[in-house]
Amino acid sequence: MLRIVDPQRAAVLAVAEAAGATFPYVVRSGNWWVIADNPLAYAGPADRYLAFADILHDVLDENHPPQRSAVIRIEDVNPLSKAEQLRAIADLLSAEHVPFVVAVIPFYVEPRKDVRVALSERPEVVAALQYMVARGGAVALHGSTHQYKGETGVDFEFWDAARQGPIGDDTEAGVAERIEAALAEMFRSGVYPVLWETPHYAASSLDYAVLARYFTTAMEQRLALDDARTSFYFPFFVKRDAYGQQIIPENLGYVPLATPTVDHLLRAASANLVVRDGFASAFFHPFVDLAPLRELVRGVKKLGYTYLDVKTLTNVVRAQNKVVVTGKADVKLSLTGHYLAEHFFNEQGAPVEESVGSRRLWGEVERK
Predict the structure, then answer these.
(1) Comparing C-alpha atoms, which of 51, 46, 5 is closest to residue 29?
(2) Partners of 171 in the beta sheet?
(3) Confidence check: pLDDT of 3 > 90
């Protein structure tokens, strides 16, 4: 427990309360900062860690005006999702003037039933996804199959739940093969991802390094080490992580499936207001009743958060001979005898300009 001996030389910036008593939690004396415990020992959506996250701005001299953003993500959309549910979600969020992220798994797999369905085989789902983009949606690639040995959406993809560690055949080539196949299927379907989400937030450091070659942006929590107990929780935007990506936080959790309620999410969003650039990011499964979704986005806005359109960020997705860009970025594309095709879309995903080169190109093409 901290005790202030000379109030003229030390300032109490935060206090803690317990059993009716109050004591200093964060104390500053010049450039010397003292915190009463280790705020990193446990970090959660409504924990005292949030006070530490805000004070870090002063410790690192990164002060700026308050800006509190929110993101809602529609989770685990796959070829077996119901198109009418996706359209209803898009209508609701559009009516509430809330941009959103939709996390798409391009292949549904259930090994026990020998089932494999590709997104391009479900044109009604593709049309629903394009409908969502036209009403404020930004697409995140949520794995290739979102499964390793089990069913899509239930299983991990880059993590072995039985071993509680990276998958046994975790290789750069294996990860790249999955991502290339997923991107090819998305492009084939006319659905263009602009960011990434790791299935069940679990992957190895090797996987994260490979993923960063394809995506400049991800929305998720991450593992700090190759250990499921080291999930990295943060309440603010990360401009550049250890792998060079920008990370949009997901820091509230999701609307429960069995008993849909948003009270705990709104309490956590309220607690995150202590962080001057805090986020209120949550996710929602498309088969859940829509009433809690409406309650959540209205409640978050009432707290003073502004929903972020992630397409306004600079996002770059790179495949072998294709690049998707939002915002402004210098990009290079290597072509081997291809015609250069360029397509430009407005905020609703509608094409506004396109061009196709008149000759095949070899080598590197650069666009600013």
Answers:
(1) 5
(2) none
(3) no
CA dist., res. 168 & res. 320, Å (int): 26
Would you state the structure tokens that stand for residue 333, as one six-digit string? 């594309």
Would you list the DSSP string of 52-117? HHHHHHHHTT-------EEEEEEEEE-TTS-HHHHHHHHHHHHHTT--EEEEE-SEEEEGGGTEEE
For residue 1, pLDDT beyond 80:
no
Tell me: the pLDDT tens digits for 352-362? 999 999 999 99
Alpha-carbon distance of 272 to 237, in angstroms, equals: 13
DSSP states along 218-278: EES-EESSSSGGGEE--SS-BSS-TTS-EEE---SEE--SSS---HHHHHHHHHGGGSTT-
Q: In whole angstroms, what is the distance from residue 157 CA to residue 145 CA?
A: 7
First vs last C-alpha separation in the chain: 55
Token code pair at residue 70: 């929110």
Domains of the chain: 11-59 (no CATH), 69-312 (3.20.20.370), 330-367 (no CATH)
Percentage, residues of the chain above pLDDT 90: 82
Are 100 and 286 in contact, with CB atoms under 8 Å apart?
no
**What Å distances lie between residue 231 and 66, 76, 253, CA to CA?**
27, 20, 13
- Say how many C-beta atoms besides its own lie within 10 A of residue 325's C-beta: 17
Q: Are 120 and 113 in contact (CB under 8 A)?
A: no
| 323: β partners | 318
Q: Using one digit for the tens of pLDDT, what is the confidence trace for 286-300?
A: 999 999 999 999 999
Residue-wise pLDDT tens digits, 37-87:
999 888 888 888 999 999 999 999 988 889 999 999 999 999 999 999 999
